[in-house]
Design goal:
The protein is of the alpha+beta class. The chain contains 8 helices and 28 strands. Helix 3 packs antiparallel against helix 6 and helix 4 packs across helix 5 (about 155-170). It is elongated, with a radius of gyration of 25 Å.
């Protein structure tokens, strides 16, 4: 495929100009669509025909090339917010059947940032033909990273991201990265905090024109909103922590969990979760988890397949709630969450991994061989943000059990020096050495 040369021209206004051969067929339908959706991150474009060629002129007056904008010192969160906006433009183009290759995403010099609107703006070639390739997202991100002056607030996240760029450029020669890949990178691998659905909806509605009909489309796209809440922990009665250590405050009751976007914990991209799956309530000093006739069930301290479906059960700090197969640790907000037991006068049966004080004890742990940091394991199956894409589980036999590690979505993982491919699992043992994206860990079981 041929590439398109872009240059900045200065007339009465400033334009980013694409010069195309006269024979190139411009899609007036696509051109009109782009100009109607500049609020989605497209640069407005005009079309001029000369005797020799077609000119596409993208208005960039008052904007700054993204390559220059990221040279200023910016916090890590702002940097990833810019990448999230790129992902949203890609997603919108895909949802509306616009050719990925016609997004001009090869060099940050050709992508602009509107400082007033706080928005990344991308040029799109409204062409009938498919012989031009203007998008290579991984190379674009790699170049952006070279330009960027980032104030790092989470070194582990930045190291993962840098490793991803190097690994992807080396192993994926075509460097094809879709909006879904980029979303999963931000959400599942890096665990980037982007705000709650309502915050993002309010932000996007505020930026939209007064006569815009985008409210419905924003709500439709909320299936891909990154759900992270971390600031209200101290003001809530309790909170849930997911398998990636993200915290969700429970500051009112009933606290609803389900697939619909208006739930308090909205799991909108999980097909196994019912629209209203379960609720957490507080009655006479006791917390409860209640299933709301969900299709696949709610489970407590044991995952689907091994456990009994919950109808309504009392909750104790440290319980693991399974929304079908999605684990959430329930914690009462107290000075010492691990030792708090909330319940009625009648004592409840202790969990297998709870000691006499009511404090949850770990059944195994991982040690980062470089930092010596200890990562406790309280329940199987186990996942954590430090080893995103990896699951550690246990299979019970008649007289013994076996521990395994499964590679769900990690591009670089090995056990005792042997690579473990994505989708594969390998047995592990106490003292076993793991290598995750070049970071060494050792697994130990508690006696």
């Amino acid at each position: 495929m041929a590439s398109v040369s872009m240059k900045v021209v200065y007339q009465n206004e400033t334009f980013l100009q694409a010069g195309l051969k006269k024979k190139e067929q411009i899609s007036e339908e696509q051109l009109g669509f782009v100009n109607k959706n500049t609020d989605k991150g497209f640069l407005s474009v005009s079309w001029e025909k000369t005797a020799a060629r077609n000119l596409l002129k993208y208005k960039v007056s008052g904007m700054t090339a993204l390559s220059e904008y990221v040279k200023q010192s910016m916090p890590q969160e702002k940097y990833f917010e810019l990448i999230r906006q790129i992902q949203k433009v890609m997603e919108f183009a895909s949802d509306n059947k616009l050719d990925y290759d016609h997004l001009v995403l090869t060099d940050p010099k050709n992508v602009y940032y509107d400082i007033e609107k706080k928005k990344v703006c991308v040029a799109f070639l409204p062409l009938m033909s498919r012989e031009h390739k203007c998008s290579n997202v991984v190379k674009f991100l790699a170049k952006l990273h070279k330009y960027a002056n980032i104030t790092v607030t989470d070194e582990a996240v930045m190291n993962k991201y840098t490793f991803f760029l190097k690994d992807y450029l080396k192993t994926k020669k075509s460097s094809v990265l879709t909006h879904n890949h980029l979303y999963n990178l931000l959400h599942d691998v890096l665990e980037v905090s982007m705000g709650t659905p309502s915050q993002i909806l309010a932000e996007e509605l505020a930026a939209a024109p007064a006569d815009s009909s985008m409210t419905a489309s924003v709500q439709d796209n909320s299936d891909h909103t990154i759900v992270v809440s971390k600031s209200r922990k101290n003001d809530c009665a309790a909170f849930l922590k997911d398998e990636n250590n993200r915290e969700f405050p429970i500051d009112h009751f009933p606290f609803t969990i389900g697939r619909k976007a208006d739930n308090d914990l909205a799991l909108t991209d999980k097909g196994t979760v019912s629209k209203l799956h379960a609720v957490i309530t507080y009655e006479n000093g006791t917390f409860y988890i209640e299933d709301k006739d969900s299709s696949n069930g709610t489970f407590l301290n044991d995952f689907a397949g091994n456990g009994q479906r919950v109808i309504k059960e009392e909750l104790t700090s440290g319980d693991v709630i399974y929304i079908y197969d999605l684990p959430f640790v329930f914690t009462v907000n107290s000075g010492d969450n691990a030792t708090v037991v909330v319940g009625s006068a009648a004592p409840r049966k202790s969990r297998k991994n709870e000691n006499k004080t009511g404090k949850m004890k770990n059944i195994a742990y991982l040690i980062n061989s470089s930092s010596k940091e200890k990562v406790p394991i309280f329940v199987y199956p186990f996942t954590c943000s430090e080893l995103s894409g990896i699951v550690i589980g246990r299979e019970n036999g008649r007289d013994r059990h076996s521990i395994y590690v499964e590679n769900i979505s990690c591009s670089s993982f090995s056990v005792e020096g042997s690579d473990v491919a994505e989708g594969s699992r390998e047995s592990i043992f106490s003292g076993c050495n793991l290598l995750y994206h070049g970071i060494p860990y050792t697994f130990f079981e508690e006696n």
